[in-house]
């Protein structure tokens, strides 16, 4: 589903953040990525999402369904992101001039899909009855739940989540992660979740730790939190 092949990323004036990272993510799995602050977790998600570019080099460092992201022009990359990906990023703000229902329906509209699932997803994140409210009427956690509903509504093949439960109380966080888990299993999608929360990581199928050496599998995080 997603393959990283010797992925390098340095920022201007900085030391390399990712140095030849390789990994293969499979469809149908929910993977948590943990690791020390500043090690490059958000950088990695941004690169996969196409929000930033890897260092230039001869290889094809990011492949989605076998297609090198770098080989796509802007239109093709946008289409791939719109159809195949769902983002739960703090930076992806809910649009203020659209109602909650319109916000969640947006990926369906853009992909020419029937829109009735938008109301179901709002209900699934605990916001039934709030369809015609506007984002400014929401708390931070409610806003996060709208972003999650919007990220999942079009059943993307790849869900990228950066601290999806960062501003939710433990019960709501648990419910949202169960929803994420259910959606992934039902659609056979792959989800990659960056988190510092051991409780969140315990909901994933696998936890990887990002270090300077790359992504390493661990079972202990999930075991510890259970
Ligand atoms: N736009 C940027 N320009 C320069 N340096 C950056 C930029 N974004 C991130 N960095 C640096 O890259 C490194 C990795 O940052 P990143 O945000 O990916 O870490 P992280 O593992 O997600 O950290 P945290 O757990 O604290 O969110 C850090 O040293 C950071 O200072």
Automatic annotation (TrEMBL):
InterPro entries: AAA+_ATPase, ABC_transporter-like_ATP-bd, ABC_transporter-like_CS, ABC_transpr_LolD-like, MacB-like_ATP-bd, P-loop_NTPase
Keyword Ribonucleoprotein among UniProt keywords: no
Alphabetically ordered keywords of this record: ATP-binding, Cell membrane, Membrane, Nucleotide-binding, Transport
ABC transporter domain segment(s): 2-226
GO CC annotations on file: plasma membrane
Highest taxon above the source species: Bacteria
One Pfam family it belongs to: ABC_tran
Any one GO molecular function term: ATP binding
Protein name, UniProt field: Putative ABC transport system ATP-binding protein
Native source organism of the sequence: Pseudoduganella violacea
């Amino acid at each position: 589903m997603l393959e990283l092949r010797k992925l390098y990323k340095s920022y201007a004036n900085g030391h390399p953040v990712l140095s030849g990272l390789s990994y293969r993510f499979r469809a149908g799995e929910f993977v948590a990525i943990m690791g020390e602050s500043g090690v490059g977790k958000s950088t990695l998600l941004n690169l996969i999402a196409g929000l930033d570019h890897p260092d230039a080099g001869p290889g094809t460092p990011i492949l989605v369904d076998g297609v090198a992201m770098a080989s796509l022009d802007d239109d093709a990359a946008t289409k791939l992101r719109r159809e195949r990906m769902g983002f739960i990023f703090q930076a992806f703000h809910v649009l203020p001039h659209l109602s909650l229902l319109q916000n969640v329906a947006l990926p369906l509209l853009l992909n020419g899909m029937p829109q009735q699932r938008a109301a179901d997803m709002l209900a699934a994140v605990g916001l039934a009855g709030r369809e015609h409210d506007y984002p400014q009427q929401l708390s931070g956690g409610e806003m996060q739940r709208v972003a999650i509903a919007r990220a999942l509504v079009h059943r993307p093949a790849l869900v990228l989540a950066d601290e999806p439960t960062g501003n939710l109380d433990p019960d709501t966080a648990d419910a949202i992660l169960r929803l994420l888990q259910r959606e992934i299993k039902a659609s056979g999608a792959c989800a990659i979740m960056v988190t510092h929360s051991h409780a969140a990581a315990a909901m994933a199928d696998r936890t990887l730790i990002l270090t300077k050496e790359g992504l390493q599998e661990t079972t202990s995080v999930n075991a510890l939190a259970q």
